[in-house]
Each structure stands twice: as structure tokens, then as C-alpha cells.
Amino acid sequence: MASIFTKIVTGEIPCYKIAEDDKYLAFLDINPLHEGHTLVIPKREEDYLFDLNDEELAGLMLFAKKVAKAIERAVPCERIGVAVVGLEVPHAHVHLIPIDGIYDIDFSRPKIKFSNEEFNQTAERIRSGI
Description:
The chain has helices spanning 4-9, 54-74, 116-128, and strands at 17-20, 24-28, 38-42, 79-83, 94-99. The chain is an alpha+beta fold.
């Protein structure tokens, strides 16, 4: 069965798209820890990040780097934190989270709620920096 991320890749489920190429996709997390919290995925469904072949893993991280730089320009923060948890969705993915301190990347914290318009505005600001 296709993961929710595969359904996003195929367009069955909408997303707030940040960047895309033929192999990777970046979109805003709809349950973010911070404005600009972005997920970066390979389009090919693979459950575990470290089961990606070396070329895919390297490509994913280089794609994530480009997206992280754009987030940094669009969202005030000290840095972009990177997290790989890998348990919540059976599709390899990387979290890019604007942070000002180590505790900003604590997934037990309450998630922030944004309106559709706020998500769209954030996505546009990030996209314009790529």
C-alpha cells in the first residue's frame, strides 16, 4: 500500500510544495514545530532512509541542503535543524526545522497551527529563495 508521502508525490493528496525535481520533493509539514518546517523525501518509496542506495541518499541530502538554504533566507532562525526519525511514516524523509536552540527540535512539543493562507505564504517565501 502506498504511503501518504507517495500519495503526495502522485498528487492524490495536496501539499504545500517547496521544491521538486525528478527524484525528490520538499513540502511543508502540516504539523510543524516551527514556521517553515519542511519534509524532504525521495519520490521513490523506501521505508528506511538507510535502505536508500548511496546515490539516492547523497542526492536527497544535496536536495535538502538547497531547500535548507532557502528556508534560512525566508524564516528568521539561528540555523536549520535536521532530523530523521523514520517511524511516523513508512517512507524515508528528512525534517528541516528552523531552530534557535536545541529544544526547538523536540518532537514532543505541541505543534503549531497555521491557516491555509499562512502555509501558502510561507511556502511562497521559501520557494522564491531557491
